[in-house]
Design a protein that fits this description.
Elements (H helix, E strand, L loop, with lengths): L1 H25 L2 H15 L4 H31 L30 H6 L9 H11 L10 H10 L1 E5 L4 E3 L7 E7 L2 E5 L2 E6 L4 E2 L1 H5 L7 E4 L3 E7 H24 L9 H11 L1
Antiparallel strand pairs: 1-8, 2-7, 3-6, 3-8, 4-5, 4-7
Helix pairs in contact: 2-8, 6-8
Amino acid sequence: MATSSSSSANLEEDESLKGCEVFVQKHNIQQILKECIVNLCIAKPERPMHFLREHFEKLEKEECKQILARQKSNSQSDSHDDEVSPPPPNPVVKARRRRGGVSAEVYTEEDAVSYVRKVIPKDYKTMTALARAISKNVLFAHLDDNERSDIFDAMFPVTHIAGETVIQQGDEGDNFYVIDQGEVDVYVNGEWVTSIGEGGSFGELALIYGTPRAATVKAKSDLKLWGIDRDSYRRILMGSTLRKRKMYEEFLSKVSILAMLKKADWDYMVQHLH
């Protein structure tokens, strides 16, 4: 009798677990959680719970859009009008490529993979100076050692003599600069605003948005700068992100979400499946 009761309990447990596996597969839970963990590992946020909440809220919004789209499609297919007028042709609108923002420049995985690593030789003193100069810059604070090294390697030397204009307000912005030697004056609408000396930097917005220069920068003395262009900066970061994502995905592909549960988790889940 005890054996029969035990077999029955085991059978119910197996059925419950099979039901759980079916649910996980039906709703693509494994892939959803895997993608979530990958994004979490890449971002490494200080507030993981806040990050996860925003991540799942975004997924929920996307799901709602898909549901509404399906409902609209079904509604249209179910309607049978006696007379159906063909829709007017869509006007052909030529997209204007504007270099005023990142949204105008779409970088693909192919762009990152095709990037050829640039190495501009620098001595130890220069590397140390660059590291010190960008250590507190928000554009570089989140970089790991490999990314920072690739950025440093790609930076190229730029020289100007006293009085020359380095960047002109209103011009297209492509490069970010770190001052190795010398000093610059910054002007906005023709008025002097500030001076920047050795170890200082300018042109950050060019790396993020490629927006027109917000100020004019002139060499106050003979200058030696180190610069990096937006294309290199973004390809380096994108390539690094893709490598991290691939690494995390390969790791997680070997791990089943259900297999990660401890016995206590299984017991709790089975208990609440009945």
